[in-house]
Amino acid sequence: MPTFVIAGASLAGAKAAETLRDEGFDGQIVLLGTEPERPYERPPLSKGYLLGNDELDSVYVHPEEWYAEHDIDLRMGATVTGIDRAASAVTTSDDSTVHYDKLLLSTGASPRRLSFPGSDRDEVLYLRTTTDSERLRAAFQAAPRVVVAGAGWIGLETTAAARSYGCPVTVLEPQPGALHDQLGPELGAVFADLHRSHGVDFRFGERAVEFRPGMVITSAGAEVPADLFVVGIGAAPNDQLAAAAGLEVDNGVLTDEYLRTSDENIFAAGDVANSFHPLLGRQVRVEHWANALNGGPAAARSMLGQPVSYDRVPYFFSDQYDLGMEYSGYVEPEGYHEVVFRGDVDRREFVAFWLDGDSRVLAGMNVNIWDVLDDVKVLIRSRTPVDADKLADPAAPLADLVS
Ligand SMILES: Cc1cc2nc3c(=O)[nH]c(=O)nc-3n(C[C@H](O)[C@H](O)[C@H](O)COP(=O)(O)OP(=O)(O)OC[C@H]3O[C@@H](n4cnc5c(N)ncnc54)[C@H](O)[C@@H]3O)c2cc1C
């Protein structure tokens, strides 16, 4: 009976296991994960769970009994320490060796860490796991003065949560604006204004260089009062295992559009995979919930020998204060020509479109508007030029813009 091993017991890994069973695979499935708890979803960790609105039970991908019911050998606290491709086996931190016929790497990503005087102190916190979220939640309850490093998604969502606990917050960001690398200056300004309207102080163009009890020292020499220092400066793919095993790695494990690595028996999905995207015509590594949710099942189909091109439009969501948004598509910082707004930006009820020089829609973001996502994705997929004036006109149906 074949054995399929999944390294990384989180959203991508658990969803892959689910698909294997749904598709009728009756071999052995071994799901190996470093963390001491069963697979869970991370978005609530910077939102409802951090705010104390969501129960722990609501973050898990499957109920506890699901794994036994589906004959999935879930081993928690078991880190994969090596891949022996010649022997088709992985070794684990509990000194076992597990043979595989097919192996999925869904090891995700880890927060990038700061290293400077004081950065190892207990008041310096990161956010990736349920334990991290619980630690932050407990700390916020005393309404400490918080400094956040990084005005990216994690930094800003954590900032919103900290403000809701009444913490004074200063955000340090070396870039000239919020979400600069993710969205560019136009939308970055919208998010910076949102946070400022909730009393957040931004220091753009500055980074932290030292943490002392009670303060963060910035690269500009400023002393910013801080009882707590939260670091949200991005994440790096956990691709060391793959690299050590001689797989092709470049900012993640390289795969084709079927999520197959350079070894025909090894696959990769979720945050760790840098996959060829047929729509975009290039490799992309996407650190988003939906990519783990859908990439795990896509990889499972390839493991079963039923490969389907994984060409979903990248999708991301965020909630901050009373702003909810969905972003679809893919744009790099210098990779667009203009942003077109449709709706009321001041009231934060609008759709923004990123266009290339030929007026093709590369990406769209709907902010506090909830019935347009499918149309936005159709526009992105069409790759045909659109009339920017009509795009900006809420009276012109989006569906009519695709010829
Ligand atoms: C706080 C937070 C909030 C987020 N909010 C959003 C959001 O609002 N919207 C959105 O779209 N995305 C969001 N994301 C991103 C989203 O959660 C990730 O894209 C998603 O978790 C990726 O899932 P994954 O299964 O690929 O990897 P991960 O979730 O990183 O899981 C990988 C697992 O593999 C384990 N592992 C690593 N190495 C090994 C090894 N050698 N052996 C065994 N196990 C190993 C890790 O411990 C981990 O448990 C958020 C992320 C965080 C951290």
Describe the fold and architecture.
The structure is a single chain. With 403 residues, the protein is an alpha/beta fold. The protein is 23% helix and 30% strand. The protein has 11 helices and 26 strands. Helix 1 (11-22) links the parallel strand 1 and strand 2 (28-33). The longest helix is centred in the C-terminal third of the chain and has 15 residues, at 289-303. The relative contact order is 0.12. Flavin-adenine dinucleotide is lined by residues 7-13, 32-35, 42-43, 45-46, 79-80, 106-109, 127-128, 154, 238, 241, 270-271, 287-290, 292, 316-318.
Please sum up the structure shown.
This protein has 403 residues and is an alpha/beta fold.
Number of helices: 11
Give the percentage of residues in beta strands.
25-35%
The residue-averaged pLDDT reads: 97
Derived structural class: alpha/beta
Q: Please count the beta strands (DSSP E, at least 2 residues each).
A: 26
Q: Which percent range fits the helix content? A: 10-25%
Topology readout:
Blueprint: E1 3-7, H1 11-22, E2 28-33, H2 48-51, H3 66-69, E3 72-76, E4 80-84, E5 89-92, E6 97-99, E7 102-105, E8 109-111, E9 124-125, H4 130-140, E10 146-149, H5 153-164, E11 169-173, H6 180-183, H7 185-196, E12 201-204, E13 208-212, E14 214-218, E15 223-226, E16 228-231, E17 235-237, H8 240-244, E18 253-255, E19 266-268, E20 273-277, E21 282-284, H9 289-303, E22 315-320, E23 323-329, E24 338-344, E25 349-355, E26 361-367, H10 373-382, H11 388-392
Parallel strand pairs: 1-2, 1-7, 2-3, 7-19, 9-16, 10-11, 10-16, 11-12, 18-20
Antiparallel strand pairs: 4-5, 5-6, 8-17, 13-14, 14-15, 20-21, 22-23, 23-26, 24-25, 25-26
Helix pairs in contact: 1-9
